[in-house]
């Protein structure tokens, strides 16, 4: 079962690459079929096997031999790994299903933000719809506290919006923090934002002190996404360790 879940994650990861490429260009994610962006060669099923096709083709288009970005197998691998880790923790459950979809959305949002410094409303709205379905499903078929998660969403959005208001971040960052709060609740979003700030601070320090990048812009949405995923997977354990050390 673990293998099947991983393969599913890899295949969905391949689709995520399509979304990442086409959404910023305002192109349909369903038409035309997958093709080489350099020569237009229509990819065959044998060219679309996650990771394996990339390795078999040695990272080049079968037709024009143009280099294929390493991003493609990386996103496939990352999404497959996330599905596997989520399955190990939650098994077949409501949490696994919706966290898997949410994680895929976070990957898409993060990569697009890194590349374009923008968070597209189409993906945010889709994620919001998934969050609402998750909350309603959890209320009637699980043990999710609707109030707790809604307040978590408000906290996530509100905290980041304060930074947006004072010019420190973009509105998209607040949207993603709010969406994360809807999925992981009050304690979760507080922990996720704390983790996000720590990781972002380390990266910013590295860029400033080691790479001497004084004015480089830094997309914060990927750090919110990373903090959220870390919380989902090991947040409770990290909190326990933190409390044992400092309290």
UniProtKB/TrEMBL annotation:
The Prepilin peptidase A24 N-terminal domain, residue ranges: 7-90
Positions of the Prepilin type IV endopeptidase peptidase domain: 101-204
Gene Ontology biological process terms from the UniProt entry: signal peptide processing
CC terms in the record's Gene Ontology section: plasma membrane
Presence of the UniProt keyword Transmembrane in the record: yes
One Pfam family this sequence matches: Peptidase_A24
Membrane-protein topology: Multi-pass membrane protein
Record's keyword terms, sorted: Cell membrane, Membrane, Transmembrane, Transmembrane helix
Cellular localisation: Cell membrane
Molecular function GO labels: aspartic-type endopeptidase activity
Keyword Lyase in annotation: no
Primary site of residence: membrane
TM region(s), chain numbering: 96-114, 120-137, 146-167, 179-204, 216-234
Coiled-coil intervals, chain numbering: none
Family label: Belongs to the peptidase A24 family.
PANTHER family in alphabetical order: PREPILIN LEADER PEPTIDASE_N-METHYLTRANSFERASE-RELATED, TYPE 4 PREPILIN-LIKE PROTEINS LEADER PEPTIDE-PROCESSING ENZYME
Protein name according to UniProt: Prepilin peptidase
Species of origin: Clostridium sartagoforme
Lineage: Bacteria, Bacillati, Bacillota, Clostridia, Eubacteriales
């Amino acid at each position: 079962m673990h293998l099947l879940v991983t393969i599913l994650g890899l295949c969905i990861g391949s689709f995520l690459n399509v979304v990442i490429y086409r959404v910023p260009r305002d192109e349909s994610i369903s038409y035309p079929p997958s093709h080489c962006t350099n020569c237009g060669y229509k990819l065959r099923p044998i060219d679309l096997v996650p990771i394996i096709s990339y390795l078999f083709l040695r990272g080049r288009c079968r037709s024009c031999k143009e280099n294929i970005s390493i991003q493609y197998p990386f996103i496939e691998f990352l999404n497959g790994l996330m599905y596997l880790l989520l399955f190990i923790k939650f098994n077949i459950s409501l949490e696994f299903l919706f966290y898997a979809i949410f994680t895929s959305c976070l990957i898409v949002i993060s990569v697009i933000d890194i590349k374009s410094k923008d968070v597209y409303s189409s993906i945010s709205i889709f994620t919001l719809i998934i969050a609402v379905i998750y909350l309603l499903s959890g209320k009637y078929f699980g043990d999710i506290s609707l109030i707790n998660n809604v307040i978590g969403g408000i906290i996530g959005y509100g905290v980041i919006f304060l930074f947006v208001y004072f010019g420190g971040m973009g509105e998209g960052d607040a949207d993603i923090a709010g969406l994360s709060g809807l999925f992981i609740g009050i304690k979760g979003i507080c922990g996720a934002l704390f983790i996000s700030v720590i990781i972002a601070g380390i990266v910013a320090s590295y860029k400033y002190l080691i790479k001497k990048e004084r004015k480089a812009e830094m997309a914060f949405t990927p750090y919110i996404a990373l903090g959220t995923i870390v919380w989902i997977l090991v947040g409770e354990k990290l909190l326990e360790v933190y409390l044992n050390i400092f309290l």
